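Batch job 17 of 40 flagged for manual review because the log was empty.
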Amino acid sequence: MDKKKVDIVNEVLEDCIMAYPVSSFIISLYKQYNQRGSLSKKQLQGLYGKASKAENISPAKLATLEALINKMPTRYKSEAPPPKPLYEKEETNGQLIDAILAKYPQHKRVLFLKMKYDKNEPLSSQDVADLKRFAQLLK
C-alpha cells in the first residue's frame, strides 16, 4: 500500500504555467519549488493571487493552497533596538568626583578624571582606585 502524496503547490504551479506561459514570476516560483521543495508564505500568497485569476484551476486546489498559506506562521520584522552607548557611566564615580571637587576644586588629577568621565570615556581600574583613595583622604 503505497500512498501517493498529493502535491497541491506543484499542481497549482503547473496549472499556472499552462495559464500564464510567459509569466517570469510563475516560472521562477516553479524552478525554486523544484530546487528547494518549498516556497515562503509571501511567495505562496503571490502564487495564490495569480492562480485565483486563472480560469482553469479548480476551486478545491485554490482552497487547499489557501489553507496551506493560513497554516504557515507569519513572521514580523521587529524594530531595531535603540542604540546603546558604548560605555555607561558609573554614577558612583561621578559622585566621588563631585565630592572631591566640592572640597578641592583645583585638584588636577580629579579634574582630568572628570573630563574623561564627562566625555563618556571609560575610567580604568587605576583611575577608580585613585578616586577612592582621594575620597578616603577627605574623610
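Reviewer: the log was empty due to a logging misconfiguration, but the result itself is present. The chain is about 65% helix and 0% strand. Unflagging and moving on to job 18.
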